[in-house]
Amino acid sequence: MMKLILVEDEMIVRVGIKSLIPWNELNCVCVGEAANGVEALELIEKHRPDLILTDILMPEMDGVTLLKHVRERYPHMKVIILSCHNDFHYVQQALRLGAADYLMKLSLKPAELRGILSKMKLVIDKEKESRLDQLEIHQKINVSQVAMKERCLWDALKGRMKNQEAWNRHVADWKMDLNGTVGIVHMQINDFAKRERLGELKNADTVLFAVTNIAQEIIRMSFHGEVIKGEKGEVVLLVGCRSREEWKQASLRLVQHIQESVLQFVKVSMTAGISDELASPPRLQESYNLACQAYAQSFFYSKSAILSSEVFKQIQSLFPVLNEEEMDLMANAIGRRDAGFVKGYVTSLVGKRLAGGVFLQHQVRDFFLDLLPVFDRRLKAVQKTIREFPEIMDYYPYEAIASIETIEELISWMMNFIDEYFERLSGYEMYSRRKEIMDAQQYICDNLGKKLTVDGISEHVGYTESYFSHLYKKETGESIVECITRLRLERAKDLLKTTDMKVYEIVEKIGFSDSNYFSRQFKRYEGMTPLDYRQRFEKR
After folding, report:
1. For residue 373, is the peptide bond before it cis, meaning its omega torsion is within 30 degrees of 0?
2. Residues in the chain where the model's pLDDT stays below 70
3. Dihedral angle computed from the Cα positions of residues 374, 375, 376 and 377, in that order, rounded to the nearest 10 degrees
């Protein structure tokens, strides 16, 4: 749609010109009328028209002066001059100033007006298309440059770039603001993966982009450096700094400023790990690893903590594993249905161990993993497993132990799990498995590689879909869909352990339609990816 403004001091002339313009034919609209140049400028600022049709001789501001203002402020706008025979020297002046064309008001014919406006429409549309093409090209170039810069920096952080000459060339090519020694910070948006899964982050990529921009602007206030984003809410700061002492004093204030600004403007909190060692590009890997290790220790602190890698260097001992005596005490308490004792005992075991030193978080997570088979032992007597449990606090059991970000939250999750466990155990033991339930599960096992529907399974056992769905959930504590997913994942585990089949082949064999969805579900149930699971058994 071509937008036009008509500027003419005589109202009758304005009405006459408007009546001659074939608006629909030209896909054109008049967005405003003015009696002089001053009024016209206000309308132009408000509506940003494509074309201005203006008289030359007008009070307050004439057409030539208006044209000068338009050329200075809006060079892409087209201006057509309306003139009388006796002011042609003004027309010449207007054409020299860049007017697109002119019309003689006294001899104006509809065909002439239509012809000039049609020509202007073609020119305007072509120029718009060209500007859009140029904008798209510039955007692609900018995106490509950012991507190449990030790839270069990640290569250095991961130890894939050690050549100084190549580094210097990349710094020049991608205009990276890094010279001399560099301090590195690993920052993470808290609960990023969980909030993304639950839909609490409306657009995770936009959130990460905003956080990166805020961090970059704050760094530029007092330092020089770069900010790059990684996976699952990770942001890495690379900050130019002259000495380790300067970095030690400045890094904490810098990270606190970023945390506060991100919380204020993006409404997300962040935790940070700071490397206490400066790096000399392109050798950044050791310093980056220290920053990541410092962040990993935030598991033992509250969220939004800021930790130096000096904390990681204090680790001296292994977190004690669950011994046989402790397992027997747990098993006996579970057998007695003593939920209070079990909760207190788990809390005591963790607390005593944590009091003995500074540990790696994966050691503590492994301890919690060792607890699950003790609970699973009792479930097997009623033909159940922990993997049949629903989400507790938005996590499945193995997913919780692998993903929850702080020890405090993990202990809280475990207490909720123990309550849920005893409630379900009582329910499982109160009923004997109904034949139709067992028939349904056998049918699912026999047809894992096929398309399974709740309606089809219900029809197989002779019930309506709504009745059998309710019955199955009541009797087993899980939905039919959850059962299908669990049995498919159990079959996938067997294939990963006992065959050399590719992951995509296993996905097809067990009836999943999408490899990415399968991998996400597997990690939620098992706490690790399918490939990590296979490698764990290959090492045994």
Report:
1. no
2. 85-88, 132-144, 316, 381, 429-433, 537-540
3. 60
Of 250, 248, 305, 242, the residue nearest 275 (C-alpha): 248
pLDDT of residue 316: 67
Per DSSP, the three-state class of 165 is helix
| DSSP letter (8 states) at residue 314 | T
pLDDT of residue 184: 97
Instruction: State how far the alpha carbon of 25 is from the alpha carbons of 80, 118, 161, in Å.
Output: 19, 9, 62
Kindly report, residue by residue over 407-419, the tens digit of the pLDDT: 999 999 999 999 9
Interatomic CA distance for residues 253 and 339, integer angstroms = 46
Q: What share of the chain is helix, strand, coil (3-state, %, to 5)?
A: 65, 10, 25
Q: Which two tokens stand for residue 371?
A: 């607890």
pLDDT tens readout for residues 234-251: 999 999 999 999 999 999
Which three-class secondary structure string do you get for 413-479? HHHHHHHHHHHHHHHHHHCCCCHHHHHHHHHHHHCCCCCCCHHHHHHHHCCCHHHHHHHHHHHHCCC
